Amino acid sequence: QLEMERKVWTKAAFQRTFPERSEYDHKGDHGKGLVIGGSSNMPGALGLTTRAALRSGAGLVTAATTDSVIKRIASFCPEATFVTVPEINGHLKYGNDIDYKGFDAVAIGIGLGREAASRPVIRHAAAAKIPLIIDGDGLTHLKADLEVLDEREEPVILTPHPGEMAMLLDLSVKDVLMRPFHYAKKFATDHGVYVVLKGAFTVITDPNGKQAVNTTGNAGLAKGGSGDVLTGIILAMIMQKQSIFEGLCNACFVHGKSADLLIQESHSQHDLLASDVIEGLSLVYRTF
Ligand code: APR
Ligand code: MG
């Protein structure tokens, strides 16, 4: 019974569900993704997400952020396009000037910071009628404004690490780590969202409580930036021809697998950086 409800996401599951690209594809077939976040103290995070989404098959990726963040990340992701959002003290504000039309999915919160001025940006994103991924500081803003989830019909995906999951549930990190399946399922079913509870073993839960666990990855990922890369991979994956649940499982699988292959081939857990994990994706896509 437990086995059925909590499936280990295997290489076979990845190979069965990972969508192929066809010879006649054009960029519109693979999704137009929007990433929103960044702040003067964390400019790189959004660059990592953008580049990871591009390396994971998205047709087009646009980053909406402040002018100063755009200047700092543009050369790291030359294939991306940009939208300038007004700022206050290095943080995004308003958000009502972002046009969601034409986008297939949006990821928000990456390196956003916790300034109250940025909170409306989340509310506006939640009003867009496309799948929404909320990561990092976006989760802190969401916690203060949880009603935004009530009005949503399109999928919402939350990507907390245990600290963020604990914050969302008003629990301690220790509580979450003792019963990760239980608490992820509780939040997912209570709020009708997908939850990707990250860690050495990442638990993926759908709004009905279906769960899978990813076992790829290693401690080389225990570094700032790894989560930002995962968010970009997730954004790309949920725009391909697979279910959201499968897309989330496959995103976690390739993220961890990239780190695993890099450690076998050219890196160690010590030196592995989040940006290496993006470049390592080619090893995964070529091998499997
Ligand atoms: N084994 C396998 N995977 C791991 C391991 C491990 N030992 N440690 C971490 N990971 C993976 C997680 O599964 C997740 O996919 O690395 C990623 C880490 O994601 P986050 O915790 O979101 O990290 P990130 O956002 O990049 O950086 C940490 O979070 O709490 C904030 O302010 C803090 O800036 C910091 C940021
Ligand atoms: Mg994070």
Which radius of gyration do the C-alpha atoms yield? 17 Å
Main sheet overview = 10 strands, mixed
Number of strands: 12
Oligomer: single chain
- Number of H- or I-type helical stretches: 12
**Low-pLDDT residue intervals, each spanning 5 or more residues:** none
Can you write the helix and strand succession as a string?
A: HEHEHEHEEEEHEHEHHHEEEHHH
Shape: globular
The share of residues in helices is 40-55%
Terminal CA distance: 30 Å
Q: Which strand order does the major sheet show? A: 1-12-11-10-9-8-7-2-3-4
Bound molecules: adenosine-5-diphosphoribose, magnesium ion
Summing up helix and strand content along with how strands pair, one would put the structural category as alpha/beta
Mean pLDDT: 95
Binned strand content: 15-25%
Describe the secondary-structure layout.
Elements: H1 2-5, E1 6-9, H2 11-17, E2 32-37, H3 43-54, E3 60-65, H4 67-73, E4 81-84, E5 87-88, E6 91-92, E7 105-110, H5 119-127, E8 132-134, H6 137-143, E9 156-158, H7 162-169, H8 173-178, H9 180-191, E10 194-197, E11 202-205, E12 211-214, H10 226-237, H11 244-265, H12 274-287
Parallel strand pairs: 1-12, 2-3, 2-7, 3-4, 7-8, 8-9, 9-10
Antiparallel strand pairs: 5-6, 10-11, 11-12
The structure holds adenosine-5-diphosphoribose (APR) and magnesium ion.
The site of magnesium ion has 4 residues, from loops.
